[in-house]
Design a protein that fits this description.
Blueprint: E1 2-6, E2 13-16, E3 30-33, H1 37-43, E4 46-49, E5 65-67, H2 72-77, H3 89-98, H4 110-118, E6 127-128, E7 134-135, E8 141-142, H5 149-165, E9 170-173, H6 193-204, E10 210-212, E11 215-217, H7 221-225, H8 230-243, H9 249-291, H10 298-305, H11 307-312, H12 314-326
Parallel strand pairs: 1-4, 1-9, 4-5
Antiparallel strand pairs: 2-3, 2-6, 7-8, 10-11
Length: about 325
């Protein structure tokens, strides 16, 4: 099972509702903003949030979402790293030796990042790069902030504890436009931003995503997650930067779209050719079928010949079915 872990450093920012007019049923006065939520929801089997307060309000009832602050075994386990949740000079020094600092001034401004994610008019809503204090049942206190390198370090430690508790799962820390910078000088699997954004850009054309201050409205996410070809699509996206030898998301998306269109056109042309010659060969085929002594039907032999190519392109069937469902 592939798990997305959303930690203290994962949200890109937070909307605030100090008077609690918008998030009336929420315990907290802020609402996290996740980059590419449709991409995350499609690429991963489940999304595990370090704390419910780090999950967008609109996603909290999704059946593939889990909140770790309600898991007693997990809360007991992270007590082992409790000292790192307070300022620790040696911890900070160790992080800077292995990770690059987050230079948020050279990146897009927070306003630009959140606007690009949500498309909302931010003049109407207060927002910030951090949450207020988040309290865990075991007495640990923290706060979400993707501009703090220490939060990235804590999330990596928490991820290791999760792996110890769930050794059979593949667990990945979700990064964003800011925290991705930390891993640009090291070969780590934590930088999954390319996959997530690639998935998001392909899917957003076929499954429109509405963003409100409450979070993303993923009305048709079940269509994606329950599709029988979703695993093939995940594999295609995961391997695309190697298949196309590039890490530029727009280039990867363009190449996948071109490959998809070419394959679809090839199928259409082949079907057309089959239809045009069917009438002239149908009688011959029927005569041969009667004469064959083999127990294997001709159609099964023909199907077997095309099996490998068909399976290799199953990801294209996933995209095609989404387009078809959109037009219903």
């Amino acid at each position: 099972m592939r798990i997305a872990f959303v930690g203290l450093s994962s949200p890109s920012g937070y909307f605030y509702d100090h008077k609690k007019k918008l998030f009336k049923n929420s315990e907290w006065k802020w609402n996290p903003v996740l980059e590419s939520p449709i991409g995350i929801s499609t690429l991963y089997d489940e999304i595990w949030f370090f704390h419910e307060a780090l999950c967008p309000y609109s996603m909290r009832k999704e059946n593939y979402v889990k909140f770790l602050n309600y898991e007693s075994d997990f809360c007991d386990k992270i007590k082992e790293i409790q000292p790192y949740f307070t300022f620790n000079t040696s911890f900070e020094s160790q992080l800077t030796e292995n990770l690059l600092n987050i230079n948020y001034n050279s990146n897009n401004s927070l306003r630009e990042v959140i606007t690009n994610i949500t498309g909302l008019d931010l003049s109407k809503y207060p927002f910030d790069n951090h949450s207020h204090t988040i309290k865990f049942p075991n007495g640990i206190e923290a706060y979400g902030d993707c501009w703090r390198l220490s939060n990235v370090g804590i999330d990596l430690l928490v991820k290791e504890k999760l792996i110890q508790l769930n050794p059979s799962h593949s667990i990945e820390l979700i990064t964003n436009s800011y925290t991705t910078q930390c891993f640009s000088n090291v070969q780590l699997r934590y930088n999954n931003e390319i996959e997530i954004k690639t998935s998001h850009k392909i899917l957003i054309k076929r499954i429109p995503e509405i963003h409100r201050i409450e979070g993303p409205i993923l009305n048709r996410i079940d269509i994606l997650r329950e599709n029988k070809y979703v695993g093939d699509f995940r594999d295609k996206v995961s391997n695309s930067k190697y298949d196309y030898n590039t890490e530029e998301v727009d280039q990867i998306v363009s190449k996948i779209e071109i490959e998809f269109e070419n394959y679809r056109n090839e199928i259409l042309l082949n079907k057309h050719r089959e239809a045009s010659v069917f009438s002239s060969i149908s009688s011959t085929v029927m005569w041969l079928a009667e004469k064959l002594t083999s127990k294997v039907p001709i159609k099964k032999i023909a199907d077997f010949v095309g099996t490998f190519e068909t399976r290799r392109m199953n990801w294209a069937a996933f995209m095609a079915e989404l387009e078809q469902s959109k037009n219903k």
